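User: Let's play a game. I give you a shape written as tokens, and you guess the letters that built it. Ready? Here's round one.
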């Protein structure tokens, strides 16, 4: 609205109009609407170039913002010249010893790190550190941040000897200036633990992870992504060192925390935002499944079955279903949009340390959001039911004798860290059993070799794919043979596919007795 007013009153070539474009574009970028953000940035860039000239800090700012958008989109070729131009402008108008110039160096280094140009990134980070040392001093949190960025680069490069002293120096600065109860201090502990894990210094890892977890629990609360990260990292460490009992309870708590975070997020994030948010949590599920494969944990298998139900059902279907139902009439739509507004504001509060949150605002927003959700559950048919979570016990209760439920799952395999292998397994649920059963199946590359074809698949390919004397028997051996071995004879199977299995008709795969 402000943009339209400035456009009419001051014209579409006025700096105030460009400022509105530059304010609206980052909002769309944060929402994941990149296609709306880009033209706004480009229009603001053209205005500032024409009205203020190329040697102006405002023009450099818009170049940097546009470059950050392209970097986020993975369009590195477009991002690099913009970052370079912004850097050159700041060097010309501010000089090489200005914090704003150091920020340009840092942004360009982040891009080069993402591109794998580690040598270029290193020299930029080193220059930025030198500037911050001169302008801010060696005890400034901004200097610590630059040290941390360079340490992450060295860690990524596998140069652990260079990374360790930088992490330790950043940790000491943050402890002195921010205190040992600050979330940034916890982040330094976490980074150092990740480094020691890769170095094989296991005796140093556990106390650092435990301290980071305790700080995050106190400073951020248990319903915070950073606390979930601490749970996950600690579980991965115990899994890698064979302490399965400790890993089991952490994976269970981490799964519950992740589901709680996603349930909250689904009410205020766009579908694209939710997809990006989900990537982080799918890693956690991959690690939990890898743990179950290694440990044969019964409790872990049950947790993974619940996770599969949540990710496949709640996130893929419920998100859209809730929105469709809520927007079905004007009054409900108004309440739903108001609920999203409250949840967004709550998310911003929850993202801050507990000490920095406005407790009165949080209590007020929570009460309003709760009332609105109750109202929607009462007035919109199916809204409350859509929010209800299904657990494995509910699925088991719905199974009759002679029936089985199979959740197929695919996951990247972790031991100490992720390895380049995607595995498939089946989580089998039968009536009367105490927990679901974990059945390892195959590597994705085995199935991919059977499905891969040149160009557009022809009918002959599909005939071969499901033929018992061709590919069909291999499909049976990979997918069904291990599952059938654990089924009662003649069982009726309800199966939920995953990954490449969505490309197959599971019921058309031939069986050894000549049927399908």
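Assistant: Ready! My guess for every position:
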């Amino acid at each position: 609205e402000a943009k339209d007013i400035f456009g009419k009153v001051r014209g579409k070539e006025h700096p105030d109009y460009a400022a509105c474009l530059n304010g609206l574009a980052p909002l769309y970028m944060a929402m994941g609407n990149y296609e709306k953000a880009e033209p706004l940035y480009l229009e603001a860039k053209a205005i500032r170039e024409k009205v203020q000239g190329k040697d102006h800090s405002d023009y450099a700012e818009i170049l940097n913002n546009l470059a950050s958008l392209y970097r986020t989109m993975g369009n590195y070729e477009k991002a690099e010249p913009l970052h370079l131009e912004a850097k050159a402008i700041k060097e010309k108008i501010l000089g090489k010893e200005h914090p704003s110039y150091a920020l340009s160096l840092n942004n360009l280094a982040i891009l080069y790190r993402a591109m794998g140009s580690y040598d270029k990134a290193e020299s930029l980070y080193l220059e930025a550190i030198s500037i911050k040392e001169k302008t801010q001093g060696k005890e400034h949190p901004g200097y610590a941040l630059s040290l941390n960025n360079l340490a992450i680069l060295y860690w990524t490069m596998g140069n652990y000897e260079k990374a360790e002293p930088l992490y330790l120096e950043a940790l000491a600065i943050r402890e002195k200036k921010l205190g040992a109860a600050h979330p940034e201090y916890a982040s330094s502990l976490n980074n150092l633990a990740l480094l020691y894990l890769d170095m094989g210094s296991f005796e140093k890892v556990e106390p650092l992870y435990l301290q980071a977890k305790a700080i995050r629990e106190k400073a951020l609360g248990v319903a915070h992504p950073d606390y979930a990260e601490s749970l996950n990292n600690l579980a991965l460490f115990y899994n890698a060192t064979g302490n399965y009992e400790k890993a089991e309870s952490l994976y269970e708590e981490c799964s519950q925390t992740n589901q709680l975070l996603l349930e909250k997020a689904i009410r205020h994030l766009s579908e694209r935002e939710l997809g990006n948010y989900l990537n982080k949590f799918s890693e956690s599920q991959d690690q939990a499944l890898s743990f179950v494969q290694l440990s044969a944990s019964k409790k872990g298998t049950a947790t993974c079955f619940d996770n599969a139900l949540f990710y496949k059902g709640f996130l893929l279907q419920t998100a859209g279903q809730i929105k469709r139902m809520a927007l079905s009439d004007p009054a409900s739509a108004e309440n739903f949009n108001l609920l999203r507004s409250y949840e967004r504001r709550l998310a911003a509060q929850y993202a801050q340390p507990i000490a920095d949150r406005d407790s009165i605002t949080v209590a007020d927003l929570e009460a309003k959001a709760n009332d609105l959700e109750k109202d929607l559950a009462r007035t919109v048919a199916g809204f409350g039911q859509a929010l209800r979570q299904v657990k494995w016990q509910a699925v088991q209760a719905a199974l009759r004798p002679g029936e089985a439920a199979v959740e197929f799952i695919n996951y990247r395999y972790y031991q100490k860290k992720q390895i380049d292998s995607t595995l498939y397994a089946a989580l089998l649920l039968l009536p009367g059993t105490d927990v679901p059963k974990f059945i390892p199946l195959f590597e994705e590359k085995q199935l991919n070799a059977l499905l891969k074809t040149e160009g557009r698949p022809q009918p002959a390919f599909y005939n071969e794919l499901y033929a018992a004397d061709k590919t069909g028997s291999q499909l049976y051996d990979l997918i069904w043979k291990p599952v059938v071995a654990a089924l009662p004879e003649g069982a009726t199977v309800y199966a939920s596919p995953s990954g490449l299995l969505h490309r197959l008709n599971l019921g058309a795969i031939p069986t050894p007795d000549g049927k399908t």
